[in-house]
Every structure is written in structure tokens, then in C-alpha cells.
Amino acid sequence: MNIKLLGAAFLVLVTLSFGHAWAQESPGIDRSATGGAQTLEDIMARQQKLNVDGAFRSENLGNPANAAPISDHLGTRGGVSRSDTYRAIRYNNFDARTQARGPAADVMIQDGGMTWLKLREGPVINYGGGALLCFLALLVVFYFIRGKIMIDGGPAGTTIQRFKAVERFGHWLLAGSFIALAITGLITLMGRSFLIPVLGPEVFATLAAGSKWVHNNISWAFMIGLVMTFVMWVAHNIPDKLDWQWIKAGGGIFTKTHPSAKKFNAGQKIVFWTVMVLGFSVSLTGLSLLFPFQLPMFADTFGVINSVLGTEFATVLTPHEEMQFANIWHSVVAFAMMLAIIAHIYIGTVGMEGAFDAMGSGQVDVEWARQHHDLWVAEVEAKQSKGEAS
Ligand code: HEM
């Protein structure tokens, strides 16, 4: 799937989740009684999530240019009042002088943090977790309707090599690390809500710290596995006309006949490209989270989306906003990947007789291979007989 479309879909999700809260117009508030300062009505309106125009505060930062210099004897900030200073910090308009340096050091209060927090604690956990549970339930229903896909007429008893040791190593590096990342990622995302009541805060604190360590370090194995499997299998996953025939036949899931396929059928190609594209995206955002503020990528991505789709997404983001986008996108893509992988694990284990051997011993039953990958078997046999003849 096109990365820009994924970005656009993500923004639609964010807008749908939060847009409604901010869609209502700002009420006209009379601030004459407070001399233009905040009123109780402002506070109440914000609590009701009405769109209060904050210009009366953000543009009221005193006038440091005309104020007495700091050396005059008006106080530590010279002619600038404390409220002015607070508002300047609040609206990121304060010439901060902190010892800490770095891209985010000058941002002391960041509004978007609340939007990010609510998105993460609400829709990401609810829709993501809900989708996982629904999908698992659907697979159980599917299993009871379709049952295990068996080898028609039973196994032949002779085998053919499907994956070499290096291919199986690459697959299990990718698979093992992904499963560890999924479990530790879910603990980090939702453990506070679901595990603290069960384990208590002390045990959970240890588990959460361990999860973070595992998640950060195993990510490298995942990226190596991703590159290995991409290099080894990309040539077999280029879409061709045959894939369309396979899709039209529904992969033979509900029919007696098996559509023809080479080494990978259309269903497997979909799994391959889903893993590669989403795996690449989750790795990029993961690196951005691993090295905070060093790899900002969303402002530039939005710029590309705007120029292609004519949208008007923000192309100037604060360092914290970059991190918040990276965090939410990382979780959304990870959930999408988990859904695809649950289906993949199902078909590789309980869903189909003889499939697991391909990644277990590397040897599959010839009859299984003929039924699911007839053209690949023909290719291998042709090569073998050529080798014997020469
Ligand atoms: C317990 C977990 C898993 C099992 C039992 C499993 C099993 C298998 C099997 C049997 C195949 C070969 C199918 C064939 O003969 O053509 C395969 C291929 C593959 N696996 Fe897995 N797998 C698991 C987890 C994963 C994970 C977590 C990922 C990626 C994050 C992954 C990515 C792939 C890819 C890209 C292929 C090649 C395309 C395909 O056959 O669909 N696998 N897996």
C-alpha cells in the first residue's frame, strides 16, 4: 500500500477520533470584568471541549520590548510581570535559557501532549485491542465452519525441500522477534490498565521495565529478519497474472479444486508485502522513538502528502509533536501487522495440514506441494531432471 495513502488514512483516523470534540464554535465571552484576563466561563467552556479562541491569552504576553530592562529595580524580571512570563512559557514564546540543550529543551509546556495522551489511552487501545479480540473470535468461527484444510487423498509420504536453513533462520528471526515485540509492546501500551489490577504495582513496574528493555533491544533482530526475508523472497513475490486467477478462485478455500500457484500464491504475496511495507514503517517510527528528536519525519511526510493530494496538513511541527505522531503511527501500524500475522500463524499451524513443515524441517510432503504450489513443484522437478541429465 502506498505510504502516503497510509499517512492520509492515519490522519483521517485522528480527525475522526478528535475532530468532533473541537468542531463546535468558540462562545463569545465577555472578559470586561477581568480586564481581558481569563474568566470562569473560559474555563467551563474548555472543560466542555468547546473551541475557545486562546488569542486573548497567547497574544497577551506583556510587551518585553517596552518593559524596563532586567537590570532595573522593578523585580527579577524587570518590567515583565509573572503572568506575562507564565503566558509566554505556556504559548512557547519565551526566550528560555536552560542549561539543558537539544531540540526540545526550549519547549516547556506543550499543548498537543493532551491530545496525544487521550488518543493513546482511548481510541488506540480500544480500537486496536478490540480489533485483535474480534479477529481472534472470527478465526475461531472460521475454523469451526471450514475446519482444517487437509491434503486431498492424504500425504504422499515423500518430501521435497521447500525452504533452506538460511531461509528458515531468517523467518524465525523475524517471527520470534515480532512475537516478542508484540507482547512487550502491548504490555507497554495497555499494561497499566489491565495488569496493575491483576499483578499489583510493584510486579507490574518490574515487568514494564523488562518489557521496555526487551522491546528496545529485540527491535534490531526484527529489522535484520525483515531485510533477510526481503532479500531472499522478493523475487518470488512480484505480482503476476496468475495471482488474479488465484484470488478469483478464492484461493480454493471453499472449493474442491486448488488454483495453480508458483512458490508463493497470491495470499502469501499479500502477507509478504504487508509484512515488508508495515514492517518498514514500524521500524522507521521505532528508530525515531529510540533516538528521541533525532529522526523527525512527519513534517516532511505531510509536505509530500500535501503536494500529492492537495491537503493542508501541518508541515511545521514542534519536536514533541514529531515524537507524538511517531508514537501513535507506530502503534497503529503495529496493530495492523498483528492482525495480518494472526491470520498467517493460523494458516501455518492449525489451519492447514502439512504447512508448518515448510518452516519446521524445511521438507514438505510432495502431495501437499502439488496441491498448493503445483507450478513450483514442476519447476523444481524440471531443474532436478536437468541436473541429472547434465
Ligand atoms: C508461530 C508463528 C509463525 C508460524 C507458525 C509461521 C509459519 C510459516 C510458514 C509455515 C511459512 C511457509 C509457508 C509456505 O510453505 O509457503 C511462513 C512464511 C512466511 N512467514 Fe511465517 N510463521 C509465523 C510467524 C511469522 C511472523 C511473526 C512473521 C512476520 C512478522 C512471518 C512472516 C512470514 C512471511 C513474510 C512468510 C512468506 C510469505 C508467506 O508464506 O506467507 N511469519 N510462515
TrEMBL record:
The keyword Iron applies. InterPro entries: Cyt_b561_bac/Ni-Hgenase, Di-haem_cyt_TM, FDH_cytochrome_b556_subunit, Formate_DH_gsu. It is an enzyme of class 1 (oxidoreductase). Its main location: membrane. It is a multi-pass membrane protein. Residues 1-23 form the signal peptide. The chain crosses the membrane at residues 124-145, 172-198, 218-238, 270-291, 328-347. It is found in: Cell membrane. Keywords: Cell membrane, Electron transport, Heme, Iron, Membrane, Metal-binding, Oxidoreductase, Signal, Transmembrane, Transmembrane helix, Transport. Coiled coil: none annotated. Its cofactor is heme. Pfam families: Ni_hydr_CYTB. Belongs to the formate dehydrogenase gamma subunit family. PANTHER family: FORMATE DEHYDROGENASE GAMMA SUBUNIT, FORMATE DEHYDROGENASE, NITRATE-INDUCIBLE, CYTOCHROME B556 FDN SUBUNIT. This is Formate dehydrogenase subunit gamma. It comes from Marinobacter xiaoshiensis.
